[in-house]
Amino acid sequence: MTFESADEDQVATAPSATLAAAGAVVGGIAALSCCVMPLVFVVVGISGAWIVYLTALSPYQPVFVAVALGSIGYGHYTLYRARRACEAGNDCARPLPNRLVQTSLWAGTIFVVVAVAANYAAPFLL
Predict the structure, then answer these.
(1) Can you spell out the DSSP letters for 81-95?
(2) 126 or 16: which carries more pLDDT confidence?
(3) How many CB atoms lie within 10 A of CB 52?
(4) From CA 14, how far away is CA 11, in angstroms rounded?
(5) Is residue 67 in some structural domain?
(6) Per the domain annotation, does 75 fall within a domain?
(7) What is the 3-state secondary structure (H, E, C) of 94-111?
(8) pLDDT, greater one: 92 or 20
(9) What is the model's pLDDT at position 83?
(10) Kindly report the CA angle at 60 between 29 and 72, in degrees rounded to 5?
(11) Can you give the pLDDT at residue 6?
């Protein structure tokens, strides 16, 4: 079975990479939930008393960031690690990464970077 003719979107990704990408996105959104998400909701026009309760997640933000960073690190390792050398004429058994998994992994990375940067930028903006 060759992967040369297969489209990158159609090739299966390892379940561990998919799980790591999902953990990165969920962890990134959780890290954003205490500090950045209330501001985003207000800017977009979504308001209500329930937004105040998102700040109760602030003590847990380091845990969310740590879980997200672990998932991001494992996901990047799984998707982009060096491939083993293949002999000429043989197919490599490692499947190509799925674009949805790559996109969600990079989205989780951006979420975590924004969440961490917001903590350092907030004193200068307020």
Answers:
(1) SPPPP--TTPPP-SP
(2) 16
(3) 9
(4) 10
(5) yes
(6) yes
(7) CCCCCHHHHHHHHHHHHH
(8) 20
(9) 56
(10) 45
(11) 44
Specify if 102 maps to a domain.
yes
Write down the pTM of the prediction: 0.70
At 79, which helix (H) or strand (E)? Answer: helix 61-80
In the chain, the number of structural domains is 1
Average pLDDT score over residue span 9-30: 76
Handedness of CA 117, 37, 52, 34 (dihedral sign): negative
**Residue 18, CB half-sphere, CA atoms under 13 Å: how many?**
9
Rounded distance, CA 70 to CA 90, Å?
A: 34
Residue 121 lies in a domain: yes
Domain span holding position 26: 15-80+96-125
70, amino acid identity: G
